[in-house]
Specification:
Chain lengths: 114, 358
Amino acid sequence: MIYLSVAKDFTKTPGFRYETQSPGISGELFRMSKLLVSYEQAVKNNDKLEVNLDGTAGYLTSFLEEAFGGLQRYYRENGDNRNILESITIVSDDEPHWKSDIERYVQRELEKSK
Amino acid sequence: MKLRLKREKYIKHCLSVARRSEKRRSQVKKIVKAQRRSFLGMTAEERRLSYLRNERRIIVTTPSVFTFLTNPNVVVGLIDKIEVALLKAKEEGKELYVDMWHVSSIDHATISALLAVLYRARKNGIPINGNWPKEDSAKQIFKKSGFIYTLFSNDPDAGHKYEINKENQLFTSDAHDIALVKEMSDGVSDFITEGKQKLGGLYTTLGELMDNAVTHSGGGGRWWLSINYDRTNKKAKFVFIDYGVGIFTSLGEKVDTHRVKILWKKAITLFGIDAMEKQLKLIITESAGQVYNLEGGHGEGIHGIYQTFKRQELDQLYVVSNRAFGNVSAEKYDRLTSDFKGTMYYWEVSEKNVIISI
């Protein structure tokens, strides 16, 4: 299992969707610099990625949508219809609702690829 | 001889000053007398208004119940009137005078909306003036809100500096500022819980609103936040306003792809162009992204705030935009008679909304 913690490995104050809106702490940067790398590593090793959302000040829907929905979009736009959540486990004990929200964002992108 | 001449000159000067002064006094007396005569048969209110009226001034009189949350049609209607008066004032080079004398009740949502409109006008160089409400309770709310300081102060920090734990605050910015969101959530958490508790729902709400205002509002991205602490009930009350174009106008402008255009038309056919209250309910409860099938994962913000409310991390949620008024807590959505060219959110956070310990 590969572990990725937003608070420990990225920031305790997650920002907005795009890098231009909150440089260094955006959903876009998290996806490109952390999530994509860890996810591809997990897939390559036939392993699973556990993303822990706890320990931050909170989240914006746009941050999480850009990170997870955005990752699903990235594959969809490249003609790959995989479901990223098959290899990702979300841990969110502080605010458990984010787990179902992320599933919804990914599902929305999956439906577009049908 | 020389001294005598000087004295005579001095006496002559004094007499001239006295004559001029007497002339002025008699002129003022005449004016006052004429004014009193013209006031004969007038009511006290007519007399008060005739004092306010002059050629260089456009007067807008506010209603007595000036509360956005309970009287939205009246407040939005008045804001509309102010907008028209501001245009006229700009064209004719006049001053806008907001007559608040009869206001008996006012809320922070109204004060923030008024500020958003007048701030923009003042920045455009239109002179603004006004009076205090006669009723002391309304006057005190208005005075303590920080409205006057934010609107008229020459201090560049006025309205741009957030101070933790200050009882009444009016804050404005046009930027995405997550550090400020964190600072505000921490400040409210300190006020409500003393021992520090995480307010994730408030972080989400403030962030989403800031993002919507800067990215989508169309009003130059400026947003207004009013935070008021009710120390007796340990409650923080929030008003967030962006004064741009409003949710529906903004969504309409975004409908640029063929697919979304069809969906937008479908929604209009389904609800009618004026049935914004039904669309507002849909956007809040089901997300704009889903309803209008927006690209790029957009349109989750308002629904995100609703979910926060559903999880009881916020209380008393109200949303007003364009012609729609939503009392989300009461599940009551109404149509407004005038168009509010922006979006207003009101909510409260108290001890019962704190759900996570750090």
